[in-house]
Amino acid sequence: MRTSLSQQIQTALMFVDVSSRKLSEAQQRAVSGKKITKASDDVPGTNSSLGIRTSLSSVEQYSNNIQVGRPFLDVTMKSISQMANVMQRVRTIAVAASTEDFSGQTTDTYVQELNSILDGMEDIANTKHTDIYVFSGGRTEQPAILNTAGTYTFDGDATQRKAKVLSWVWVPTNVSGSSLLNFDGHLGAGSTDIFSAVRSLRDMIQARDRTAVSNHIEQIDKHYDNLLSHQAQVGAWAARMDSAKSSLSDSKVRLQQMLSDIEDIDLPTAIVDLKAQENVYQAALGITNRMLELSLANINR
Amino acid sequence: MAGTFFGINIAQSGLNAQRQAMDILGYNVAHANDPTYKRQRVNMSERAVLAQSQEASSTGTSAFGAGVGTGGIERIRDALIENRLRYAMQKSSQWDFMSGKMLGLEALIGEPSDTGLQADLDNFWNSWQRVATSPESIPVRSALLEDAKALCARMQYLNSQMRSTVDDLNLSAIDKVGQVNAIGQEIARLNNEISALDSGQVPVNDLLNRRDALVLELAKLADIQQHGEGKDSFIISIGGRVLVQGSKFNALKTTLAPGGNREIEWASDGARVSLSGGQLSAIRELRDVSLPKYMAALDSVARHLVTEVNRIHAGDPTATPPIPAGNTMLKDALGNPIPGGNFFDPTKLTAGSICLSATIVDRPELIAASATGGVGDGDVATAISNVQNTVVSGGLTINQLYREMIGDIGASSAMSQRQAAAHKLVVDQFTMQQQAVSGVSLDEEMTNMIKFQQAYNASARVLTAMDELLDVLVGIGR
After folding, report:
1. pTM of the model
2. What residues in A contact B117, CB-CB < 8 Å?
3. Looking at residue B364, what DSSP letter applies?
4. B-chain residues near A69 (CB < 8 A)
5. B376/A132 Cβ within 8 A
6. Which residue of B has its CA nearest to A15?
């Protein structure tokens, strides 16, 4: 086969061209740190990468939801436990009142204490966290309990607020006052809301009706148990959020690792590759130079 | 018996022939770096005795020739290789053009990254979750509106960029058809010139080289076929119709079709040019098949986004079971919550037009996040955030529809890049082969130079010897 000058030059150019392109690709990989910079670099990889990015973004959002929702549970739990403490005191008063002979002075003390307990309970039921009334159900802009001349009414609704903590898993972030304080009457026939129960006790003590007080203790106990069972429930929700939170941070690390495996280069490999391509390129230039110098025209002067 | 000066004539013919060979050699060397040049060679042949002497014919002794003649200057080429090179060139430039445009499209979409449409979609769904967690917060609701606007803006941008790619392709079509016409006309003109000169003894090699180069240029633009070499039988056709025949040329044109595309047609009767290679065919493929497909895929993402979100936000009485409308933060005169309207404008169902409904666009309180009407209830926002994981079409979610489009673009781009690289290799191979046949080898020319130089010297020596012989002859008479 003949070898013409253009052929020599074309071969040289192809050689230099290919090695310079490979060098530039190796350089781009080493500098950007990415295996995939566009979809065509790795089509299935791009698909996975987009999916993982969505999952990562969701995981971050779930963590954010937990961050927003968890304090509400804390506030709720604290308020319920305050309320339970108060009810324990109410029960102590009821037991005391049912067993002792009423003298005018102790009656007044009990009545006064129960009145201030009612005020305190109203405050607890209207607890706010970041401008939100936590026991109002979905009507968070208004207090849960309305006190019109000593008559307490529930002004919220039974809405269950939720935070998404994992895909398809929601954890409630509130307890509605209607169930917590038995405005919905779920404690059974004859049961009243917690305010009416305490108010009845006060009126019974004021009327010095020992039998009635003694019979009423059962109602007080029911309310106390109701508070405790709600407290346990809220505690369980908080535990679910905490476990979701730690599994989310695991997921985040795992997803980032997966994304990195798909998208990122192995830097030592990239640098070795770059160095190798650099040598090939230099060799290409050197050989081309040597080859093009060789010509009869240079010798045959 | 030959004439007295017969030998001198022979020597002189030798001098002339070697001189001409040296001239052509110089011409070859001068064109050593001209990629379209095909090396030439002087064909030397025996020169017959013009009038044979009576004696030679009567005695039966065959006369030898009257020296060396030059039987024309030949172009060294291989038509088969040139044909193959042309075919490879069509494919190579077709895929090269295609891969260039596809890479541009990929750069435009910018996936995978933290800033593409995927990120905007993720932000949008996450914003609904934030509203679901804190439905009473106006700042969180405003952030949702901003994220939704960013999503709409991104879709409109992608759509407009795809549209402008189509516009660019139409401009390219006009430009390339212009090039086909210019080259076709030039070939027809060259044919005319060649047939005029070739009848005489004027060498037309340079014109033929120029024509070969133009035909190769033309092959980059369209899948041309070349037949015949003669005066009127030299034909270049595209898709079975004649573009150039001899000095006749049939032009192409572009016409504005309804929809704004430039159709590539024959100027004489407006018939569609059938193309299966070259850049013109790549333009057609991208403009009529690929980009409409991607734009439709993006439109489908937009359409499902608008209808699925609106269905939950504004309610859908036709669904089974009927979906009640969500409730806004506002109350009417009777204290009942006002139900939500459309979130996205329901009449704007394409990626190019998608936008928020005019009523909601700067009224975060009108986002219908609540099922009960209580401002602290986020059940409807939760339901909308779940659209992210809801299958909307063909077993795919909205996110997956978008990812399918990205995968489609990536696969097409990767395929066109591989094809371009493969066909470039073929073009390189045939170019090498063609250069092996037709290219100038300096070493060969240098060797030939010595050869012709020596032959010239020898012929001159023969001439001197003949001269001495004649001197002897003339000396006898003295």
Report:
1. 0.82
2. none
3. G
4. 133
5. yes
6. B428
